[in-house]
Structure formats: C-alpha cells, structure tokens
Amino acid sequence: MAAGCCGGGCPSSPPPVDRTYRRVLWFALAVNAGMFLVELIAGAAADSVSLQADAMDFLADSANYAISLLVLGMALAWRARAALLKGLSLGVVGLWVAGQTAWNAVFQTVPQAEVMGVVGVMALVANLGTAALLYAHRDGDANRQSVWICSRNDAIANLAVLAAAAGVFGTGTGWPDIGVAAIMAALSVSGALQIVRRSLAELRLPPVPAAGTHAHRGFH
C-alpha cells in the first residue's frame, strides 16, 4: 500500500481488478464445487468422517471463492468484511467437523479404505493444482490471505485423508479416520482465527480522507 492517495492509492480505495486473479478464482470455484459433490457422496457411501469433513471444506472454499469474486475490486473495508465472514464460516465448519468426529468416536464404524484412497487422490490433485495457481496471489489483504489459507489447508487435509485411508486399511479400525478428522477440525479453527484477526485489524484502520478534503482544508 502506498503512503498517500496519489499514485499507489489509499488503503480505503478500491484496487484495480486483477484479471489473472479473477480467472484463477473462477477455476478454483468450479473445481471445489465439483469436488464437494464427489466427496459428499463418497464420504456417505464409505462411512468416512474424514471424507465428509473434506467435503465440507470444499463447500466452504466454494463459498470463499464466490465471495472473493464478488468483492474483487471493492474497497479494503468491504474486502475485510468478506474475509471476516469467511473466517467465521470456516470456524463453523471446523466446529461441525469436531462434533461429527466426536460422534463417530462414540458410534464408530469402519470406513471403506479403498474409496477413501481413490477419492483422496482425486481431491489432492484438485487442491494441489488450485494451490499452485493461488500461490502467486497469497500476499495482500485479509481477503486474499483467506483464499490462500483455505487452499493450503485443503491440500494438507487431502494428504491426511490418504494417511487415514492407509491407516484404516492397515488396522481394520476407524480410529485413523477419526484422528485425521480431528486434525482437520483443528486446522479449520486455527485458520479461521488467523483470518478473523487479520480482517478485524483491517476494519480498525482509520478511514483515509480523500485528496480533495485535504485541499479544501488548505484554503482555511
């Protein structure tokens, strides 16, 4: 951000629309919406709480990308509000996953490791591709950071799902699936706190008066 309103633009001024970033967001939205449906169906069919948790992550990310597209080019305050909304929704997803994990720990079933493995590989490829495209756009305001954090967390979660599939296959129990889902819940809550803190900090920034205001005061 520039120090003044001339040249670089003020913190409260809308930035120019990044067309490359917009195309990446549209691609990420399409991939995540498709993988949400795939993992939701597969998770229910395989009785895998980690797949269902990952499906909810895909749903949250789809909303994340849609909101980011909506506020792209808006002033910092609007982008910060969007990031705050996304942070809170990510926290809700994390808490839901934690509750679902606790439920499965009590009423434990053994998920289908083969389905977990195949779908986990598909999700990992999708998320690695998305994260690679978003890596160049990871710096900036809270809204951009929220997009990168969610994408990064998803790639980590997919590796964890594959580890859970291997654990279920090796042990014949559902505990690896439950353990991975608990880690994913912690990742979601941790990412949510990071996004919320950054967005609240941006919302507390004082509004910068327009250049004309300074000029007007100079005549008095």
Automatic annotation (TrEMBL):
The keyword Signal does not apply. It is found in: Membrane. InterPro entries: Cation_efflux_TM, Cation_efflux_TMD_sf. The chain crosses the membrane at residues 24-46, 58-77, 84-103, 115-135, 155-172, 178-196. Keywords: Membrane, Transmembrane, Transmembrane helix. It is a multi-pass membrane protein. One of its GO terms (molecular function) is monoatomic cation transmembrane transporter activity. The keyword GTP-binding does not apply. Residues 25-203 form the Cation efflux protein transmembrane domain. This is Cation transporter.
